[in-house]
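Quick one - inputs below.
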Amino acid sequence: MNKPLFAIAVALGIASVAAVHAQAPAAVSRAPAINDAQIANIVYTADQIDITAAKQALKKSRNEDVRAFAKEMVRDHAAVNAQALTLVKKLDVTPENNPTSESLSKGAAAELKKLAVLKGAAYDKAYVDNEVAYHKTVNAALSGTLIPAAQNAQLKSLLETGLKLFQEHQMHAEHLARQLH
Amino acid sequence: MLRTMILIASLALAGGSLPVNAATKAAPHATAPAHVVHAIVIDKMQYGPIPTDVHAGDIIEWVNHDIFEHSATARDGRFDVDLKPGATVRMTAVAGTTAFFCKFHPGMTGTLVVK
Ligand SMILES: [Cu+2]
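Output:
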């Protein structure tokens, strides 16, 4: 695992540890370790990261399959985020910055820099490998932490659909990775 | 001036004849046996129940309730329907059993049986 991804995994790991802690004293306090405003922020950040990476891919890659994948990432993740924003407005919550989303952003910035210097087939391979790893990490966080912690039913439903979508993306990226190796 | 008048007159005639054409076209449709419309609704990243008892010539109506673009793509290539978010697209059912999937999200699959 490369360093930025490790940082992301650690950040999301912290979130899941926090969720476990929240479950222990459940009888005393029902407040989850991460609230819906923070979850919305994490999901929005995670989507935005993948859109930014895909836009970089559309600038750098000449591989038609990689470009088609990147276009799909932009389209699907933007759709989730549009829905997330609508929901955030409707619920009247302000997305809250939190250590997880901050760490996600930091890790992603480092990854973008790393990818920026690569070219051609080396870039394609690195981008797709990172997409596999990134979707795996985000999916683990969704199923292990974010979905169980979500309080609002509509937010939970959006996260569940998001998880199905990102699992598809992970499969697509894995398929592409096998093609490129 | 005369030419313009003739042109306008012929345009009016052409325009006037359009509804007549449409009417004569619509007539045999009304008397033809009604084809059943079967809807397949995509929601939350999956195809809804696939209709049974579909006959050749019936209409399959693909309805995308998701906020994502999907497709209904036959594995044997006999159809490839692109479904933008919120789109409804109709096609005529052809006899046979066809496995289909979404080309963007290949985990989405289904099988359509047309008698
Ligand atoms: Cu799809």
